[in-house]
Amino acid sequence: MTKKTINSAEIEYVATLTNVYGGEYVSLTEQEVAEYKRDPDGFAAKHFGLTRDEYQEWIECGGEAKCGAKTKAGKLCGNTLKGGSQLSAEEWKARHRSEYCSTHGGE
User: Which of 10, 62, 85, 96 has the smallest CB count inside 10 Å?
Assistant: First the structure.
């Protein structure tokens, strides 16, 4: 390659963002590359429409929406909602801790 060819070549920046299905390839602008390098989790959270903390919780629980009730001991219920597995970020955010499992009066 000549210097002229290199200068005129188009460069595509791609990042793999972790999600509950494994990963998602996303094309980045030069500005987004800098943002991604500063805070990969924050960048991914923004991409999926979540806060940084929500993103980390979504990944940690594998996209499972959990019951919003508290146990007799005062702890959050750990049961997964019916149909609440491997949810997209948007659906997980809408359902997680805002509905109840069958034990606590939900479906």
Answer: 10
